[in-house]
Amino acid sequence: KYQHEYAKRQNSNVNYVLTDWHNLSGQYDKIYSDGCLVHQSDMQDEYFAKHKELLKDGGIAIIKEMHFREDSGVGEDNCRDLGNTFGFAGQYRTLETDVKGIEAQGFTVDVVTIPIESYIKTQTTWQKNMDLDKDKMNAIDAHRRELDHKTWGLYVQLMRDGMFSLDIMICQKQ
């Protein structure tokens, strides 16, 4: 909502579509995805193929994701184990794995790494907000709120420990 209103004020020719990526059709100049890929690990090839289908020739997909750092000592198998431990769908991989998957679909990929400290602030703020609304969240689903609280705490700790990188992959369709 806010992005759409901002684009209107800027007289920008932007079409925001909030939907499941499976349901998208048409042709686009650019696609932006923020934290979606981590939830598509079993459908990575399909996910990238859909981007290729949706983008015009020369179009760009901008994909922002957290990745386990190559030097973190966490292997691909451990990525799935971490997600299963807390019962959330996120299955983080390494940047190298994602780049290979994107390139296999015929994209060129440039990567910009964002200082993780910026995202630690974001995650910490989310956790504080969840704490402020814990009574409301407990009334809805106390067990889920407890899992979310532990999960966000774990994310922040792993980020501080240098386990993650925060990357923007700029993928151009060839």
Low-confidence stretches: none
Number of β-strand runs:
4
Query: Mean pLDDT, as a whole number?
Result: 81
Strand content: 15-25%
Sheet with most strands: strand arrangement: 1-2-4-3
* Tally of helical segments: 6
- Helical amount among residues, as a percent range? 40-55%
Alpha-beta content class: alpha+beta
What shape does the CA trace take? globular
Describe, in plain words, how this protein is organized in 3D.
- This protein has 174 residues and is an alpha+beta fold.
- Helices cover 48% and strands 22% of the residues.
- The chain contains 6 helices and 4 strands.
- The chain has helices at residues 2-9, 44-54, 76-86, 95-104, 116-132, 134-160, and strands at 28-34, 55-68, 107-114, 164-173.
- A 4-stranded mixed beta sheet has the order 1-2-4-3.
- α2 links the parallel β1 (28-34) and β2.
- The longest helix is centred in the last third of the chain and has 27 residues, at 134-160.
- The protein is globular, with a radius of gyration of 18 Å.
- The chain starts with a helix and ends with a strand.
- The mean pLDDT is 81.
Short structural description:
The protein is α+β, with helices and mostly antiparallel strands and 174 residues long. 48% of the residues lie in helices and 22% in strands.
Keywords:
174 residues, four-stranded mixed β-sheet, alpha+beta, 6 helices, single chain
Helix-strand blueprint:
Layout: H1 2-9, E1 28-34, H2 44-54, E2 55-68, H3 76-86, H4 95-104, E3 107-114, H5 116-132, H6 134-160, E4 164-173
Parallel strand pairs: 1-2
Antiparallel strand pairs: 2-4, 3-4
Helix pairs in contact: 5-6
